[in-house]
Amino acid sequence: MTTKRPEAVAAIAGQMRSAVSRRRLLQVAGIGSAAMVAAACGTGSSDSAGGEASASAAEDMSDTEKVVNWSNWPLYLDVNEDTGEYPTLAAFEEATGIDVTYTEDVNDNNEFFAKVRTQLEQGQDIGRDLVVLTDWMAALWIQSGFAQKFDKAMIPNSGNIIPRLAEVSFDKPREYTMPWQSGFAGLGYNVPALQSAMGKDSLTSLDELFDPALKGRITLLSEMRDTMGCILAWKGFDPSNFTDAQFEEAIAALTEQVDNGQVRQVTGNDYIAAMESGDVIAVIGWSGDVIALGEDFGFSLPESGGTLWTDNMLIPALAQHKKNAEMVINNYYDPAVAAEVAAYVNYICPVEGAQAEMEKIDPDLATDEYIFPSSAMLDRAYVFMELTPEQNESYSRLFEKAIGN
Question: To which H or E segment does residue 92 belong?
Fold first, then answer.
C-alpha cells in the first residue's frame, strides 16, 4: 500500500466558543422539499425508518453473481499509485471471489442524488450495490424508502463501530447505514503558492482566506453545511445553534466574497485538481482530501472553528447484490483493514481497534489527531444545527442564490 502523508500539517489553532460533540452524533440536518417529493414519489416507506424499503427490494443475485458495484467519493480508498490497484479491495476480491467495480463518482451529495433520483423514485435499480453519502443525504434516502435494511448476521464486524457513532437519530440502531469515514471542513492550501502570494506557509483564519492577495484563487465547498458552518463561526455565531437573522448575515458575507471576485468557484471535490495545479491557492475543503495531497499542502481548522461530518455506507433499494455488499462493509470494519484505509485517506476512522492496528503500520499515524482525534480536538469543531424541513429549504435557496446558482 502506498500512503500519502505530509511530513508537517498546519496545527489547529484557536479556541471554539462552545464545545460540541461530533455531529451528535450526526443528527439528520433536516429533510427539505426534495426529500418530501422523493417520499411522495418513491418506493414508499410506511414508517419513520423507511421500513418498506426491504419489502420492495429486488431478488438478491449474490449467490450466482459474484459482483459488487460501489460508488464512493474521490481519494477515499487506499490505492497503489504505481499500479492503480486498491490493495485492501484487491485482498477482499482474492479472499471472497467477489469482483468489485469501484467508481469515484460521488462528487457532491445533491449532484449524485440528481443523477439517480428518477430511478429511485420509479423503483428501479440504480446499478449500484453500495453508495457512500453524507449523513443528511443518507437520512433522506432512508426516510424516502431508497435504502435496504442490513442483515447484521452478514456484518459481524459491525460491532467494531466506535461508540460515539453507534447511534444516530436518523438511523436507530444503525439498521441502514455504517459510517465510512468522518472528517473536518476547514482551511486547505497549496503551501508554495501561498508563500508566493502572501509570504506565509499556513492559513489560520477566514480573514486570511478572504485577503485580497488571494482574489480569484480560492474555492468554497458546494456542501452548504460545511461552507456556511465555517462562515457562521467566522461571523461569531454558533453553527450548531443559530437564528434566521444570523444565517442571513452569514449569507451576506458569503455573497460579498462571491460578488467581489474573491471566490473563483464553489465546488465539490473538484477543488483537488485545481489545488494541485496551483490555479487555486486556498479552499474551504475537507481534511483528508487536503492532507492526502502531500507535503506541499496544508490543512487547519480556522481559529473561529470548522465543521465535522460523517459519510455513511448504505445499500440502495433494488440493489441486486445485497449480500455481497454486506460482505464488503464487514471487510472494512475489520480493524486491520480499517487501519490500512485510514493510513491512506487520513480521515477520522470509525472502527474500534484500528488505532492499535495502526501502530503496526505507522506509529506516528496512530497518534495523528486527524485520524484518531481526542475529545479536546473534537471540541474545536462544530456540528451543524439540525434543520427543520422549512429551514433546510429556505437556507438552501439562500445559499444557492449567494453562489450564483
Answer: helix 87-96
Residue 42, pLDDT > 70, answer no
The domain in which residue 296 lies consists of 183-308+385-402
Are the C-beta atoms of residues 230 and 221 closer than 8 Å to each other?
no
Half-sphere exposure of 165 (CA within 13 A, CB side): 23
Same domain for 296 and 347, yes or no, is no
Closest CA to 116 of 89, 144, 136: 144
As a whole number of angstroms, the distance between CA 41 and CA 123 comes to 9
Average pLDDT along the chain:
86
Judge whether 246 lies within some domain.
yes
Percent helix, strand and coil across the chain, each rounded to 5?
A: 40, 15, 45
DSSP code for 171: B
pLDDT of residue 377: 79
CA distances to 132, 166, 173, 272 from 315, rounded to whole Å, are: 9, 18, 16, 28
Residue 286 falls within a domain, yes or no? yes
CATH number of the domain to which 331 belongs: 3.40.190.10
User: Does residue 318 share a domain with residue 173?
Assistant: yes
User: Is 316 part of a structural domain of the chain?
Assistant: yes
Confidence at residue 22, expressed as pLDDT on a 0 to 100 scale: 20
Read out DSSP for 275-298?
Answer: HHHTS--EEEEEHHHHHTT-TTEE
Identify whether residues 235 and 294 lie together within a single domain.
yes
Q: Which of 151-155, 171-175, 214-218 has the lowest mean pLDDT?
A: 171-175
Cell of 367: 497518534
Same domain assignment for residues 332 and 278: no
Same domain for 69 and 209, yes or no, is no
User: In 10 A of CB 96, how many CB atoms?
Assistant: 15
The answer to whether residues 348 and 264 belong to one domain is no
Rounded to an integer, the average pLDDT of 134-156 is 94
Q: What is the pLDDT of residues 7-40, one digit of tens each?
A: 223 332 222 222 222 222 222 333 333 433 333 3
Assess if residue 129 is contained within a domain. yes
Instruction: Give 359-377 pLDDT, tens digit per residue.
Output: 999 999 999 988 998 877 7
Residues 285-305, mean pLDDT to the nearest whole number: 91
Separation of alpha carbons 387 and 11, rounded Å: 31
